[in-house]
């Protein structure tokens, strides 16, 4: 049985560990965070039938997922900057195939499905080679396979590729509202039970209902300088940028709790791939970080993890498994990255939200 070392215990790394475990293979996962709840895990995400939901089925965790999934979170509304609803779809109308779940809940399920000790929380990886990783303690762990599941700024990726994520031209400023049904009923009504996009040329407000009566808001601004977003994480300056937006939309920022968090959006080149290097591979954002405008990031990471686990279980040797996995990974990731880049551009065109509305109407008609 080959020894498998996974760097990173995000959704991809944990899914890989879980699916391997169900196939009788126990990997070791090294994660810098001290626990699954050491920091904010991000907002809600919708899981798709052919990727995230399939991964949970292969992991034997569908029932646990359904217990915390929010079917109503599939609802979507698209507004213009005046607050006029240009497209709306209820969860029922969307078909019920993409249930929402808070990232933290999903991570809790995945982490809890693994035997104690599989994930080495609080383990900082300082160096990586094709046959070993080095920890901050000085410990060197030798292994047959290193899997980089360590995100956009992966320490494992340089073993395979010189590519680095490039600034997309878009930055988010993240805000939160708590106890919205009691404290912010107007915001709760505006956002609804799912996601809301209020778009204009070069900017927009994206809000998503999370569990526990919370709303997470992303103020999106096109700016050529990723450093400029730090200045926008000031409520007064951000409100100036959105001065031409409806007061009800601006209230999502005015009434938000605590500090604003700047998040420049980066992406690897569309079609990123590498030549086969023995004993090392990548999954998720380490392999193909892209903007969130395809809605595929977490789903792809979980699908990558599942495909890699099944390949390792089904092939007689690691190298043939990696060759099969990467042959399917590259075109799948390229298609999603291309869609993501196109959707980002379309979402903030001067006539926004027209392109996104047209896309949703065409999707609805097709289904």
The overall strand count is 17
**What pattern of helices and strands is seen along the backbone?**
EHEEHHEEEHEEEEEEHHEEEHHHEEHHHH
Give the count of structural domains.
2
Q: Could you report the average pLDDT, rounded to the nearest whole number?
A: 93
Low-confidence stretches: none
Number of helices: 13
Strand order of the largest sheet: 5-4-13-14-15-12-16
Radius of gyration: 21 Å
Overall SS class: alpha/beta
CATH architecture of the largest domain: 3-Layer(bba) Sandwich
Main beta sheet: 7 strands, mixed
What's the CATH superfamily of the largest domain, by name? FAD/NAD(P)-binding domain
Secondary-structure topology with pairs:
Elements: E1 4-7, H1 11-22, E2 28-31, E3 44-46, H2 52-58, H3 62-68, E4 76-80, E5 85-89, E6 100-102, H4 103-112, E7 119-121, E8 125-129, E9 132-135, E10 140-142, E11 145-148, E12 166-177, H5 180-183, H6 185-191, E13 195-200, E14 203-210, E15 214-222, H7 228-232, H8 235-241, H9 247-254, E16 257-267, E17 280-282, H10 285-288, H11 297-314, H12 318-347, H13 354-366
Parallel strand pairs: 1-2, 1-11, 2-7, 4-13, 11-17
Antiparallel strand pairs: 3-6, 4-5, 8-9, 9-10, 12-15, 12-16, 13-14, 14-15
């Amino acid at each position: 049985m080959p020894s498998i070392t996974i760097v990173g215990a995000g959704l991809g790394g944990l899914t890989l560990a879980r699916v391997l475990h169900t196939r009788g293979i126990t990997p070791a996962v090294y994660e810098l965070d001290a626990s699954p709840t050491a920091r904010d895990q991000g907002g809600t995400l919708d899981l798709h039938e052919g990727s995230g939901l399939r991964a949970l089925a292969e992991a034997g965790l569908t029932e646990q997922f359904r217990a915390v999934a929010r079917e109503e979170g599939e609802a979507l509304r698209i507004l213009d900057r005046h607050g006029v609803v240009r497209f709306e779809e209820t969860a029922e109308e969307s078909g019920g195939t993409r249930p929402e779940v808070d990232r933290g809940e999903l991570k809790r399920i995945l982490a809890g499905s693994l035997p104690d000790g599989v994930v080495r929380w609080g383990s900082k990886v300082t160096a990586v080679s094709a046959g070993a990783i080095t920890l901050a303690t000085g410990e060197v762990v030798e292994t047959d396979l290193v899997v980089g599941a360590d995100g956009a700024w992966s320490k494992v990726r340089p073993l395979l590729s010189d590519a680095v994520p490039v600034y997309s031209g878009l930055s988010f400023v993240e805000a939160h509202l708590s106890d919205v049904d009691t404290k912010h009923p107007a915001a709760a009504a505006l956002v609804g039970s799912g996601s809301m996009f209020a778009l204009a040329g070069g900017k927009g407000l994206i809000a998503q209902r999370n569990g526990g009566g919370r709303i997470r808001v992303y103020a999106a601004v096109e700016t050529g300088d990723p450093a400029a977003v730090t200045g926008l994480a000031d409520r007064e300056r951000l409100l100036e940028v959105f001065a031409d937006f409806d007061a009800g939309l601006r209230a999502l920022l005015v009434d938000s709790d605590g500090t604003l968090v700047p998040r420049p959006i980066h992406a690897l080149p569309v079609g990123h791939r590498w030549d086969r290097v023995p004993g090392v591979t990548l999954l998720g954002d380490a392999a193909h970080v892209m903007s969130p405008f395809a809605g595929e990031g977490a789903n792809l990471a979980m699908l990558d993890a599942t495909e890699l686990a099944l390949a390792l279980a089904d092939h007689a040797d690691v190298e043939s498994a990696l060759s099969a996995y990467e042959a399917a990974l590259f075109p799948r990731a390229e298609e999603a990255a291309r869609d993501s880049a196109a959707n980002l551009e379309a979402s903030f065109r001067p006539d926004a939200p027209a392109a996104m509305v047209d896309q949703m109407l065409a999707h609805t008609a097709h289904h």
